Amino acid sequence: MNIIDGISSRRSVRQFTAQPIGDDALSAILTAGMSGPSAVNARPWSFLVVRDRDMLCKMADGNGSAAQPLKGAALGIMVVGDMTRTFERAPDYWVIDGAIAGQNMILAAHSLGIGSVWLGTWPQEEKISAQRRLFHLPESAVPHSILAFGYPEDSQKELPARGGYEADRVHFETW
Amino acid sequence: MNIIDGISSRRSVRQFTAQPIGDDALSAILTAGMSGPSAVNARPWSFLVVRDRDMLCKMADGNGSAAQPLKGAALGIMVVGDMTRTFERAPDYWVIDGAIAGQNMILAAHSLGIGSVWLGTWPQEEKISAQRRLFHLPESAVPHSILAFGYPEDSQKELPARGGYEADRVHFETW
Predict the structure, then answer these.
(1) Which DSSP string corresponds to A97-155?
(2) Which of B22, B60, B63, B154 is the most exposed place for a label (fewest CB within 10 A)?
(3) What ipTM score was computed for the predicted complex, to two decimals?
(4) Would an 8 Å CB–CB cutoff place A116 in contact with chain B?
């Protein structure tokens, strides 16, 4: 799948079939997540892969109503910020670096026919705390986002675009 | 270019030829930037496109030493957070949404043979203030990142990978 076509045809998929995601596809997705740029190449992230249905349900309940699609996903990947690796002069770049990793994984999955939906966690403290408790994360590991992955149900294959180019969002040369 | 190949072959390009970037390519890049997911589909961003050499030099100087490649870029795009559009329950999702937009633009450019380097601005207050002053941005417009784009010099076409898969960054089921 061509990159530009892939970026524009991606949709947030919230209903998944029971088909599992194989290890080769998972590996390609994770490799994409680790192939983005990061500030001073700090790579301040880790990834928590969950397939266990009971844990996916608990993650979903801890992340609020928008996270319910995770309950039917083939797997979830939590992007976790690693505070031991952040750029010391501006640690909060970890938020940007984690988002780059997430979008790379979503696009790689899409190119393999795997749908996904991005479930925001950071900066909502109650969601961060819930995930931290569930997985007994150390202080240095900050939940960033949860991505739910799975093969899309037929109803999810022709979702309308919710965005695209808007001329009034672009300024040329001056504000 | 295949998505997975594109993600893994992308490098941060810091030296550019004098070849300009045409309007069709720019439009494709901006469309990609506006095609990512955003929290509650708020799309809390705008894009400032700069081709003027004098302004590119001033942007670079305001963004610190790592931003010097912008001086030789065909154009720069500043991702700007739009605080009038953020998700009211968690406004800071704008940081993640801006990063998703940036990575989409970098990948779209790469697929067109256009190199780029990501120049971090947020969360470094002195960089944010410098860009804000330069473009007389309103309070609601927060500089997020500057992306320098241009056709890569030959020396930039075979840069080594600085990352890829690291098994110790992945946790399965438990931390």
Answers:
(1) HHHHHHHHHHHHHHHTT-EEEEEE-TT-HHHHHHHHHHHT--TTEEEEEEEEEEPBPGG
(2) B154
(3) 0.98
(4) no
